[in-house]
Design a protein that fits this description.
This protein is an alpha/beta fold. It has ten helices and seven strands.
Length: 264
């Protein structure tokens, strides 16, 4: 995605947080955007807040409605006629111990964070293959590279995304299809407040690590550069990104470090 080349970009989870910041950043560059989430009203607010709002179209989308993804892709293609980049950004976090967590919570975490993303990606894939180019950008997490207490289901779903998209990259390199996995550290958004507890209800409170995280705007700017460079993986955050390298070379050390750190 060259800085002087306008693209048609579809962003999920665009009604708040990182998705909202990405929409703002990409709209300033003049790209044509399709923004999606379940909250249609909030999507329109995001659109009105952006420069070049005439180049932003709203498409409500619920990733848990897996069977409707082909229909949603048809709707998206009718807007601008094609899609160049799909940014899989929608997702939800978790804050609960394994022993306390109801199985339905794990099911929801997998349906939204993994299965919904896969269903949408598969529905877009034939279009990318037919036009012989495309770029899947998927927001996973540093928790897709190593794990932390209270986030078992979230970590599992994010690890699964890495497995799937690494395979997709290999299978479709011949079709000029790129895959970029974005691994955020802590971002100062509502992710902790919206995180699912053991019963499936939102946590409704923030935590210090999230409050002290990178601003969504700064993160979005770094993410846009990673997309432009078509990086395989990008670790974006503060000191927490060092966990990826500690895990790789000194896994027992990371285990001790995480247990000593405030994890909620």
């Amino acid at each position: 995605m060259a800085t002087n080349e306008n693209k048609i970009i579809w962003i999920t989870g665009a009604s708040s947080g990182l998705g909202k910041a990405l929409t703002s950043s990409l709209s300033k560059e003049g790209h044509k955007l399709i923004i999606s989430s379940r909250n249609k009203e909030q999507l329109h607010k995001v659109k009105r807040s952006c420069s070049n709002s005439e180049n932003i179209e709203v498409l409500p989308l619920d990733l848990e409605e897996l069977s409707l993804m082909p229909i949603q892709v048809d709707k998206a293609l009718r807007i601008y006629g094609s899609i160049d980049i799909l940014i899989n950004n929608a997702g939800i976090s978790q804050r609960s111990l394994i022993i306390d967590t109801e199985i339905c919570v794990y099911q929801r975490l997998m349906d939204l964070n993994y299965m919904g993303t896969i269903a949408l990606t598969k529905a877009v894939l034939p279009h990318f293959v037919s036009q012989k180019q495309g770029h899947f950008v998927t927001v996973t997490s540093l928790m897709g590279k190593f794990s932390s207490p209270y986030r078992s289901g979230y970590c599992g779903a994010k690890h699964a995304l890495h497995g799937f998209f690494d395979a997709l990259r290999m299978e479709h390199a011949k079709d000029n299809i790129s895959v970029t996995l974005i691994c955020p550290g802590f971002i100062n958004t509502e992710v902790a407040r919206n995180a699912l507890t053991a019963s499936g209800t939102p946590q409704k409170e923030n935590d210090n690590a999230t409050q002290n995280g990178m601003s969504p705007e700064k993160f979005a700017n770094k993410m846009v550069r990673a997309i432009q460079n078509k990086k395989f993986e990008a670790y974006i955050g503060k000191r927490e990104i060092m966990g990826v390298y500690v895990k790789r070379f000194f896994p027992k050390l990371l285990h001790r470090m995480v247990l000593k750190s405030p994890v909620r």
